[in-house]
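Quick log. Single chain, no ligands specified.
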Amino acid sequence: MKDDLKRAGENPELLKRECGIDAKLYVPGGEDGGQEPECCRRKHREDGEREALQKRLSRIEGQVRGVRGMVEKEAYCTDILTQVSAIQSALNAFSRELLASHIRTCVVQDIQDGKLEVVDDLLLTIQKLMK
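-> predicted structure:
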């Protein structure tokens, strides 16, 4: 998986084609003077928050690897589907946690800074999550 991400990071077209992400590579001091494109916005997370998110993602990765193993071992369809449902629930919980943190930190700070366009960005994000 890390190789796939590295390969995609080296090839923005691959990232767009395989992940649906239209990204421009950020190169410090590059052609654009080293300015970060919007797709590469950053957010500092406290150690506890970052570790909790990473822990959730590690569990989800393990669940996905487990499903792959079930397919390889020709497990019964409904057993696999039950595990896929558990993965979807885990991803939804991850999204809820990240969204709550985003609202409490990024959105509140931007509103306090007078950047009200963050509300439209938040609404678009919520619409995407509710698909």
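Residues 4-9, 18-29 have pLDDT under 50 and may be disordered.
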